[in-house]
Amino acid sequence: MAMEAACVLAVVVVVLAFLSSAARGGVTSTYRRSLQALPDMPIDADVFRPPPGFNAPEQVHITLGDQTGRAMTVSWVTPKLPDSNVVRYGLRADNLTHTANGTFRRYSFGRKYRSGFIHHATLTGLDYGTKYHYAVGSGDTASARSFSFTTPPKPGPDVPYKFGLIGDLGQTFHSNDTLSHYEACGGDAVLFIGDLSYADNHPGHDNNRWDTWARFVERSVAYQPWIWTTGNHELDFAPELGETTPFKPFTNRYPTPFGASGSTRPLWYSVRMASAHVIVLASYAAYGKYTPQWRWLEGELRRVDRAVTPWLIVCVHSPWYSSNGYHYMEGESMRVEFERWLVDAKADVVLAGHVHSYERTRRVSNVAYDIANGMATPVFNRSAPVYINIGDGGNIEGLADDFRWPQPDYSVFREASFGHATLQIVNRTHAFYEWHRNSDGVKVVADHAWFTNRYWFPTDTN
Ligand SMILES: *[C@@H]1O[C@H](CO)[C@@H](O)[C@H](O)[C@H]1NC(C)=O
Ligand SMILES: *[C@@H]1O[C@H](CO)[C@@H](O)[C@H](O)[C@H]1NC(C)=O
Ligand SMILES: *[C@@H]1O[C@H](CO)[C@@H](O)[C@H](O)[C@H]1NC(C)=O
Ligand SMILES: *[C@@H]1O[C@H](CO)[C@@H](O)[C@H](O)[C@H]1NC(C)=O
Ligand SMILES: *[C@@H]1O[C@H](CO)[C@@H](O)[C@H](O)[C@H]1NC(C)=O
Ligand SMILES: [Fe+2]
Question: Where does the signal peptide begin and end (predicted)?
Answer without folding.
Answer: 1-25
